[in-house]
Amino acid sequence: MVEDGRRRRDPERRRQEIVTAAAELVTEVGTAGLSHRKVAYRAEVPLGSTTQYFATLDDLRAAALEHLSRDIEAYVEQMALAMEDAADPVGVMAQGLHDYLADPHLVRADTMLTASAVLDPRLRPLTDRWFEGLAKVLTPSLGTSAADSVVMFIGGATWQAALTGEAPPVDTLRRGLAALFELDRKDPR
Fold this sequence. Notes:
The chain is mainly α. It has helices at 11-29, 36-43, 47-53, 57-84, 89-101, 104-119, 124-142, 144-164, 170-181, 183-186; strands at residues 2-3, 6-7. It has a two-stranded antiparallel ribbon with strand order 1-2. The relative contact order is 0.10. Residues 35-54 bind DNA. InterPro entries: Homeodomain-like_sf, HTH_TetR.
């Protein structure tokens, strides 16, 4: 709400605006391009607000990556729910994966999160959460090695989409997933 041309003080909302702005910037310029000044400008808050909530750039970067991780996890949860009672789980997953890979925000978020975790092991739990979450959803119906293989396939497809700027065709994803879905049925390990 605006009073006398200024926003009413809401510390939690301001903090969230800062985190959202930082997350958007990470997907646009990467974590190396992040600065308190750029985030303050994007969030339309005073520079001092960013340092008030996030004393170090590492703190701000971690909050932005956590935000991106939650975006990815929300999509994975939606896809898992769609697959639960699907007559054609491979088709549902192929279409869901295609939609994911066609969303530049999600692809950039995913690759920035993964690249950041490679450089900073403290961020590994953020990437592990969604990898393990997806594998956990898939394991009961596919088996462990097939579920792990599907997760690796998705990782590779994500990097390909990031590099080419295009999602692979649904049929290509479907064929790859169909082969992986059958792994434990052919060779349970």
